Amino acid sequence: MLYEMIGIARQGSLAEVKEIVLTAGQLILRQGGVIRDVKNWGVFMLPRSISRHQVRHTRGHYFVLRYDASIKTHQSVKSTLDIDPRVIRAAGVKLGDGKLETISRFGPINLRAME
Fold it and tell me: Coiled-coil annotation: which residues (predicted)?
């Protein structure tokens, strides 16, 4: 299945975001998944302040990870990101049913297309 996960890491260094994506990517690859795309959207104000790990956040570093994996792999990536103290929020959606013609409809990840 094709999944897209949008994550928000605490505002800080870009190295932290790279480590988070590397951890998730290694987990996907070890379980037989394929990473399709990774995008760094940068730092933005959160729609509302979020309390996470006893800290209130008003800004976050957004990133997007698109990958093919099994449901079990997707659940383990989600649970890994949920317990990481550097991650404020992570949400994933299933984009396709795994067939090539369905996957080809989804182009590159673009923040400007959402505005």
Answer: none
Give the whole-angstrom CA distance, residue 30 versus residue 93.
Answer: 21
Considering its fold, how many domains does the chain have in total?
A: 1
The CATH number given to whatever domain includes residue 64 is 3.30.70.60
| Residue 36 located in a structural domain | yes
Confidence class for position 1, pLDDT limits 50, 70, 90 = confident
Q: Which domain holds residue 75?
A: 2-99
- pTM for the whole structure: 0.83
Distance of alpha carbon 20 from alpha carbon 10, whole angstroms: 11
CA distance 91 to 46: 14
Angle, to 10 degrees, between the axis of helix 71-83 and the axis of helix 14-30? 150
pLDDT over 80 (residue 24)? yes
Identify the band that residue 115 occupies on the pLDDT scale cut at 50, 70 and 90. very low
> What sections of the chain are H helices per DSSP?
14-30, 71-83, 100-103
